[in-house]
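Progress report, Aim 2. The chain analyzed during this reporting quarter is listed below.
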Amino acid sequence: MRHNGRLFVALLLMVPALAVTQPGFERVERRSFHETLHLDGVIEAVQQSTVSAQTSGTVQSLPFDVDDSVAAGELIVQLEDSEQRSRLRQAQAGLEEAEAALADARQRFERIEAVHERGLVSRQEFDQARNNLAAARARVERAKGAVSEAQEQLSYTRVVAPYGGILTERHVEVGESVNPGQPLLSGLSLEQLRIVVDLPQKYAELARTERQAKVTLADGRVLETGEMTFYPYADPQTHTFRLRMRLSEPNGSLFPGMLVKVGVPVASREALWVPASSLIQRSELRAVFVLDDQDQPRLRQVRTGVRDNGWLEILAGLSEGERVVTNPSELVGSDRLNPVNKSGEESSQ
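Predicted structure tokens for the chain:
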């Protein structure tokens, strides 16, 4: 008690006496506190992919390089297309031949049909002409399919961006021969971003139930988030569950790979709270001024917990409803304080 008394006396004498009126105060409040787990999250792009070759050929040009921005539909790889064009010409010639054969078969069928109605040709000749017409029509359809396939193979020599974004990696160089399925370029879009964070196993169930999270940048700015997705399985190495949140405001200042702070409520408890400004702290001592029934301030040692938006949790030393001085610096050393006895001790509650 002597040691604490000396600390109290030191607090009282550090600041010169001030002429003060009734000090401002707040009552000790009891309210719920949601304990928050703070984790590091990472921003990633929703759309990120690798474009692969869909036909064989030699890389003729690469209009864009890594870190270049591209718009959706822009040409990003051009393959040499002489072989595909040759196949298309062959297919088109086959189609023309099939269409000519169809016209001939139709004319023959129409002639035989006319005389068959008068009974001048046999049923067998009529059926044969009709079957030849059907076969000619099938050959035309097959030829059209060959033309369509050749056109598609030709279109594959022009690789375009599936969406607007940034190229992140180039897997081929000009002059290289590529085959179907071979990676060409990788990229991502900055228009749609999301945050991924790994939750420790013991907090995963509560976080999944509460479905609340607060995402902040290093400068303290709070980001708006949308739909939350909880992975239904844990990582076998870290035993954590992944949480994914869609960002509602990609505004050009956020990029994939950036770190953010994710606050996830993991527990709730009742606690006593006072304004953080009421705390007096000197070394190991933490105290507040409490107004008694005669409105006289008395120094009270307290044990504190966490801070939350300008409020301080009180673990011990105060009761609900007591009045604490919100600006104790105006009282320290003033004549509003109770006199300190000669031995340098002051009774504490």
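Residues 12-20, 338-349 have pLDDT under 50 and may be disordered. Helices lie at 2-13, 82-116, 123-155, 201-210. These observations will guide the mutagenesis work planned for the next reporting period.
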